[in-house]
Design a protein that fits this description.
This protein is mainly α. It is built from four helices and no strands. The radius of gyration is 37 Å and the shape is flat.
């Protein structure tokens, strides 16, 4: 039969064993994390050195080359330079958007008049 003393000894040894295993597992986990972090830093250093080497090989841009237009401040200028406007077929005399869409009905919906429960 278990006495109070044996119960305390059992729980105490269980707690000490659990704490010790937690301590050693945590040390191993931290070592793995540090090694993984070092690998990431090494990979980033290699990647940055390769990209710096690549960028140094690129020719420098000329000052009066093609200008890029920033339309962020003016939506109307952005819309006028749209490479494929949605209504381009209507401007050129093409068929209307209703004729070309397979999802639009050929004739408008008409509801049936009268009592629907009869």
């Amino acid at each position: 039969m278990n006495t109070i003393r044996s119960t305390w000894i059992g729980w105490g040894s269980l707690i000490i064993a659990g704490g010790g295993s937690y301590y050693f597992a945590k040390r191993q986990i931290n070592r793995d994390r540090a090694a993984r972090h070092e690998e990431v830093l090494k990979r980033q250093r290699i990647q940055s050195s390769v990209s710096a080497e690549y960028n140094s090989r690129l020719p420098s841009p000329k000052h009066n080359s093609k200008k890029t237009h920033n339309h962020a401040s003016s939506p109307s200028t952005e819309a006028s330079s749209d490479p494929a406007p949605s209504e381009h077929s209507l401007e050129k005399g093409g068929k209307t958007s209703e004729d070309g869409s397979p999802y639009l009905a050929t004739k408008p919906f008409k509801s049936k008049k009268g009592d629907r429960f009869s």
